[in-house]
Amino acid sequence: MNNERKINENSKNEQLEAFRVEDKGKKLTTNQGMKVSEDEFSLKAGERGPTLMEDFHFREKMTHFDHERIPERVVHARGFAAYGEFQVYESMRKYTKAKFLQNPGVKTPVFVRFSTVVGSRGSAETVRDVRGFATKFYTEEGVYDLVANNMPVFFIQDGIKFPDIVHAIKPEPDNEMPQASSAHDTYWDFVANNQEAAHMTMWLMSDRAIPRSFRMMEGFGVNTFRFVNEDGKAYFVKFHWKPKLGVHSLVWDEAQKISGEDPDYHRRDLWENIEKGHFPEFELGVQILDEEDEFKFTFDILDATKLWPEEEIPVKIIGKMILNRNVDNVFAETEQVAFHPGHVVPGIDFTNDPLLQGRLFSYTDTQLIRLGGPNFHEIPINRSVCPFHNNQRDGYHRQTINVGKVSYHKSSLAGNTPAPASAEEGGYVHYQEKVEGRKVRERSESFRDHFSQASLFWNSMSKPEKKHIIDAYRFELGKVKSQSVRQQIVDMFANVNLDLALAIAEYIGTKPPKSGGTNITKSSPALSQLNTKYSAETRKLAVILTDGFNGKEVQFVLEGLKASGVQPEIISETLGTVRGTDGITFKADHTFLTTDSVVFDAVYMVRGSSKSVEFNKEAGQFVYEAYSHYKPIGATHDGKRWLETDEMGQSVGVILSDDMKRFIEEFGEAIAVHRFWNRTVV
Ligand code: HDD
Description:
Blueprint: H1 11-17, H2 56-66, E1 79-88, E2 108-116, E3 131-139, E4 142-149, H3 162-169, H4 185-193, H5 198-204, E5 219-220, E6 225-228, E7 234-243, H6 252-261, H7 265-275, E8 281-290, E9 316-326, H8 330-335, E10 348-349, H9 354-370, H10 452-460, H11 463-478, H12 483-493, H13 498-508, E11 540-545, H14 551-563, E12 567-571, E13 576-579, E14 585-588, E15 602-607, H15 613-628, E16 633-635, H16 646-649, E17 654-656, H17 660-673
Parallel strand pairs: 11-12, 11-15, 15-16, 16-17
Antiparallel strand pairs: 1-2, 1-9, 2-3, 3-4, 5-7, 6-7, 6-10, 7-8, 8-9, 13-14
Helix pairs in contact: 3-4, 4-12, 5-10, 11-13, 12-13, 14-17
Bound molecules: CIS-heme D hydroxychlorin gamma-spirolactone (HDD).
């Protein structure tokens, strides 16, 4: 084809290079390029006199500073992003003509922004919330955005209710509290009175809402899209991202403590792992449905409060994404990136999902206020890597200089160019779905069941996951002041599961539900994150030791664990060098003052000869906290003495062995398991 363009994994990076500026080592200038001679003192009438109006340098510097902020995103304000590449495993030609899904030899550059939804830009990252997972593919046919979340369903069915759910879940307007939390009256009042939110609320109360890492979350396109192939045949499709490391979460107590200890916990985790070369990987999966099967299910496939059970419609894994480069400048790249589910390429089309239809309006609209005008596509991070030509002109912050007289279509002066392209030439042709109906503002009858899949989700949870869900409801409703709202929620969730509603009611002091129960007994094992992958790779291990430790032994253990990808960090009495009895030394990364148990996945107690009461006490607290968060703990020789109680020493996931080879093997496996939920914690 004559419009074939060569895009490879470096194309975006090469494009960005033209915009990068290195200031280090240069002379200071004004924005006009003039060198300035002094930057510490404003121009004054006399040493102690007033600043002069003519001080252009002062005015320019201050004005720019005064205008540095732009509005944060109305939702998903707090986010962090990275670059990478995507490659399809096999041609998807049968289903879609999208070029980036045809050739396993092609690597498409991507930019992914992860986010929380509710909190403002400076909020903590480990709050209970949905996570955004938005991917920009810079394809040869233009930009394709897959704007996904880490939960497969949504709060509402129709885009027109988006402002309502967002107003309800954001801080309450009279006092702007609470920050980044659904644990307040207006969210739960919304749920009780908009019962389509039942299913999503179950997900929000589950472990999925407190991920261990952006690298350990699934992603879901949520809405139903269409694939269209070269012959014009269409399929319904749902998109999935599956993390290589499996799906793993924090525990609630830990998540809350991390919010104070390290509010940047998730971005730090992503940033550090990419810097160290531990590149996060996600596989792209699709659930594909023939158009003829549209009405074969008990739910409506266009209803965004429903998922497609993977056991009924399997997820076909079609490609892999690797994130391998951090941004240079968070504002320029992460903050200015503009996603939109309507940024599609030929071969990907929409459905009548009313939530998706609403989204198709909202995203461009929001960028106009956020990025200050209609030329946001020209901001380097948003630019497609293929050229773009049209008759759109002018507007704030226009960068391109479109030459020539003609900025209209059709024209004889420019021979009708830029000219629309036929489908054969790569032009986007909308799928010709037949639609007919009367204009109505109504909910389809097929969208009325709000509880069956919420029950399916509950049924699919393992015992510890169910306990976490009950605890989350108790916490959140415990913060709700209105007794009436609490009661409405208990009554409502009795439709999902009676035991769940009773467990909530008992704790929050409402009456048990008047009626309830469900006959849904089906479950979907794919929904339990305990059924995903386990790996010790990149798990953070706290190694607690002081001078006088057994150097050879510790070195042997750490090398052994590192071989399975574990990342040890040393905690000692002071920063600096820690010395073993045999001359082996380590550099201490932390003291108990600069770090905390909650930011590690596992603890290795080594000890040493220190007699410091303070240190020993803090070590005891550190390990007990890890224990109470169900984390693996390992100790050899002297370190065993630090384990507070016999009970702790005998618990699952606590590996005590003086046989080093066995210790490495068993502790490595325990680190991969991540949490030992059937441990008794008092
Ligand atoms: Fe949305 C941002 C994902 C429904 C309106 N959305 C936004 C982001 C993600 C999602 C990941 C952040 C993108 C970034 O990192 O910049 N949104 C979803 C998913 C939804 C969803 C998976 C359910 C299918 N969103 C949704 C609806 C509407 C919006 C129904 C409005 C009708 N979303 C927006 C927005 C945002 C946004 C207001 C805020 C900032 C932005 O777009 O760029 O337009």
